[in-house]
Amino acid sequence: MTTTAARPAVAPRQTPGDAAAPHQSSRPRVRISGYLALLLVVLLVALPMYWIVLSSLKERPDIYTVPVGWIPDPLTFDNYTSVGGGVAFTDYLRNSVIITTALTLIQVTLGVLSAFALAFLRFPGRTVVLLVILAALMVPNQITVISNYALVAQLGWRNSFAGLIIPLAGVAFGTFLMRNHFLSLPTEIIEAAEMDGAGPLKMLWKVVLPMSWPALIAFTLITIVNEWNQYLWPLLMADDASVAPLPVGLTQLQNNEGLTNWGPVMAGTVVTMLPILVIFLLLQRHMIKGLTAGAIKG
Amino acid sequence: MSAEPITAAPLAVPPVPPAAPTARSGHRLRDVLVATAFLLPNLALLAVFTYRPLLDNIRLSFHSWNIASPTATFIGWENYVEWFTSSDSRTVLWNTVVFTGVAVIGSMALGLALALLLDQKLFGRNAVRSMVFAPFVLAGAAVGVAFQFVFDPTFGLVQDLLGRVGVESPAFYQDRGWALFMVTVTYIWKNLGYTFVIYLAALQARRAELDEAAEMDGASAWTRFRMVTWPQLRPATFFLLITVLLNSFQVFDVIHTMTRGGPLGNGTTTMVYQIYEETFVNQRAGYGATVATIMFLVLLVVTLAQVFVMERGRKQ
């Protein structure tokens, strides 16, 4: 029996080809206004982005000219080499990579294991466990920070990676996403594997996961984006560059430089945004699948 | 991104199969042990860092407490009385309602408009789709820091564009109304990609032949949208309404980086920002816990309303 009969897992209709799109409007006036609207959209989204990059490439006096110069002249990378101006920006970058990697590995592992148990194993109280995990979705960490801060401070975990990572490691959304995907797998294959006497681990590894790549990639991407962008908890946990991730480093940079020296601050925001933007551009279709799963049906 | 799952899943829980016959009871014991091993770490983390603090908030909300101090003083309902009577919380509540309301309506209306536009056959639409979605993956803190300069009344992008049509830049950092406007616009700019993507997926999943049939019948574009397309978008609209409502209710990063809740003390302070400020800046963690508890009750009501509506829709 082949177990690699991978099928698109979540939200099958993502990017239908142009053939599936509604008919083309033949009236030229409608088409022209369509392109004008398109241009407006591009300006609204891209102009601020361009402005940020532009400012990061200008020499200091050129940032403070009126009217604004739209091309950096002269063009300089000094803001990037000096980004931080005493604030250790490479340290923030390293911390962001460490924290995001650790949290993604932990959350994806825990999410897959939890989802597997909820989808395939028979045990008492399964519905209650599912509800407990799902209800956690309703509790944002903005309202749990007070007590968690006190607990972590008491444990002496402030300014440590443990304090930044462990309190955020529980996973509700991913568990839900993977469980729904697992339940959509063809039951014949699962039952056949059970008949063959495959144990839970073997079944997860050899049967279920090979059929789950799209959902797994979506889950992983969403986790990476969320954890890279995490702000409030790291802000409370980390006082300096030893463990603070980029978004917090950016605030420290802003406090030191902002208002007087925007160049390095803009360079810092570009450094913070760029890695996630690259990942997004390469893998956006997978990510969108995860986000739209279950949203468009009633 | 997580609100729909909250409710869809409980409704979809398959009944637990009856206990296996005795011949397979070995399987069942093994299942129980494996399930425990698989679920325990996740459940333990959620119990300690999600449910425990939620309950602890309730206890703390009846205390006066400096978060750095080991002892808290019980003061009964005082924090609640203060929150419900102070003029400061009226401002905070107003800011929260305006920010959330404008963010929900603004990002949904614009997201739908963009989805309708980019569902058309236009040259370059795939590139523009990516571009519109991109800001959604950016860190709110980075967007906040960058947009602080974008809105700078002396050297920023907005003042430059306004200057071209002879308008002077508003005092975004001194005027309460303009400051709230600024953080709301920034948040919509960052999150527009989400409503856009959900609406686009819904449009692509709709039955285009209905639309074509209506056009054959000579229905105008507006009538086709109102009578044919819009009804098919209702599930997506309901999903977004709840999700964007819950998400924008919880915004902290954009506000903290752009205004620190100011100007004039509480010009852009929302409930989430108040929790942070009272607890960690003003050292009044008990009062912060009170605001957090009230906020949780609001989240609970919205979520239960969602479950109720979906349950009713399912029965029909």
* Domain unit count of chain A: 2
Principal-axes shape call of chain B: globular
Taken from the alpha-carbon principal axes, the silhouette of chain A is globular
* Highest CATH level, the class of the largest domain in chain A: Mainly Alpha
- Report the uncertain regions of chain B: 1-25
| Annotation field: number of helices of chain A | 14
Which regions of chain A have little confidence, pLDDT < 50, spanning 5+ residues? 1-24
Kindly provide the name of the CATH class of chain B. Mainly Alpha
Structure explained in plain terms:
- The complex is a heterodimer of chains A (298) and B (316).
- Chain A has 298 residues and is an all-alpha fold.
- Chain A folds into two domains: 27-73, no CATH class; 89-292, Orthogonal Bundle (MetI-like fold).
- Helices cover 63% and strands 0% of the residues of chain A.
- The longest helix of chain A has 32 residues, at 89-120.
- Chain A is globular and about 75 Å long.
- Chain B has a two-stranded antiparallel ribbon.
- By secondary structure, chain B is mainly alpha-helical.
- Chain B has a single domain (80-315), classed as MetI-like fold (Orthogonal Bundle), CATH 1.10.3720.
- Chain B is 72% helix and 1% strand.
- The model of chain B is unreliable at 1-25 (pLDDT under 50).
- Chain B has helices spanning 3-12, 25-60, 78-85, 87-118, 125-133, 140-150, 157-164, 176-205, 208-216, 221-232, 234-249, 253-258, 271-281, 285-315; strands spanning 63-64, 73-74.
- Chains A and B meet through helix 1, helix 4, helix 5, helix 6 and helix 8 of A and helix 1, helix 2, helix 4, helix 5 and helix 6 of B.
Can you summarize this structure?
The complex is a heterodimer of chains A (298) and B (316). Chain A is built from 14 helices and no strands.
Index terms:
A: 298 residues; mainly alpha; MetI-like fold; 2 domains; disordered N terminus; B: mainly alpha; two-stranded antiparallel ribbon; 1% strand
